[in-house]
Amino acid sequence: MTALVRYTVSGLVRSQRYLPPALLFVTAVVVLTTNDFGPLVGSYAGCALAQFVCLVWLTITVVNTEDPIQRSMTAVAAGSSQRVLLASVVTALGACACLTVVGTVYPIWGGRHTVTGAAVAVGVGAQLVAGLAGIAVGLVCSRLVVPRPGYALVVALGLIGVLIVIPPVPPIGPVMRLLSSERAPEAMVGPLLVQFAIAAAMLVIATVVTQSVARRRE
Amino acid sequence: MSALRLRGVSKRYPGGAEVLTAVDLEVHPGDVIGVMGDNGSGKTTLLKILVGLSLPTAGTVSGRPPIVAYVPERFPSHHRMSALSYLRHMGRIRGLSTRTADALARELLDRLALAGGETTALRRLSKGNAQKVALAQALLVRPHLLVLDEPWSGLDASAHGVLGELIDEVAQAGGAVVFTDHRESVVAANASTGVRIDQGRVAPERLRSSTVHSGAAEVELVPGSDGPPAAVDWSALPGILEVRGRPGVVAVRVTDEHCDRVLFTAIRQGWSVASVRRTSWKPADAWDGGR
User: Of the ranges A102-111, B238-247, B276-285, which is most confident?
Assistant: First the structure.
């Protein structure tokens, strides 16, 4: 699995296609949090939202970098197409971790906040929830499920819209409301864990659905 | 190693017509099976089912060996990684160390004479060169099952011979090889068994001899210039009718059909061909023979 992830990361890095979503994230974080004087968790709400959108894009990029025929050769070499998909998910999770570091550290440096351990933990948690949800959406919008790029874009924008605009739909809406509330960061940890579990379940379901759709199409 | 068995395998793509209908096929270790058929007859689908990329809609596939290698008809890549770097990754995915993968990749690319070198990015390779890289990735670890889709298309003439050798080596090491080609002559020259796909149904095909003339050739072999040759059990090779020897010379009589194979084996093992006696025999290109 390590070799497969290394190969996936190497293909992504050399393609440079990770740059547009990564730069979008950095730009969003800088614009949203520089010189912010409000509560730190409020700054992190913006980072989580950016993380969600950028990870949808990044995940699609990770899966689509390899040509379908080349992907089938990789699948035969790796022993199954499932492993290749898992390597893509692990790569996207790695990207999520990198963006989370930026999205956690920059707001502390760029704004003026009272920094507490609980607030930072909430920031990390919120971005991970958004990241997992983003990877889940990205997978079902990848070429494996939606082969035509135009439709994939429409489906991706539709799903992003539903998850952001309709507040009761977990996990993005509830996390945004939680981080913008007046609650103490310590009191946010519990509800955040619930949303984390939902996002993780979304990712598992999206992986299974993507694999079974791709398998049926072959 | 047991045989790979397809029993009553049918395949229908979602929303499409049936591509394969009730296919029965057995692939034994050491087999070289050539699959013939017109464009769109279902050859590629059959290969995809053999390697496990595609699931049959009906029927069963059993006994797929652990190490499978697949060379598709085209190898399109947008990757900017070099051919060597790609092969290094593929080797590591198959469990090789970086050093071993590198060494094997270089050796294979050398044999296949990858023009433009190993540092060329995959996306910049021509069709033929990309095909060589695809072939190399399949052979980094000797496969139990090697599946090749139209492997001769796009390869230059010098690589044709190497491909035949590589197929031979896999089969002689106990691996099974299945390849497709629409030309009967190619299948006859390289396969031990032929099957034909027609409208989704697979039927065995009797192969014509790879050379036009029937009969035998008398081959005289002497040690090559690169030192003493390897000992070869000539009588164990297919098509051998007689083996005679006197000090420093081996003379074998072999059927036309297997003559090229015996020559290949001899040269690979360090022997030099001193003479081939047959008035009507000509060293026809194996992939063109019988046309």
Answer: A102-111
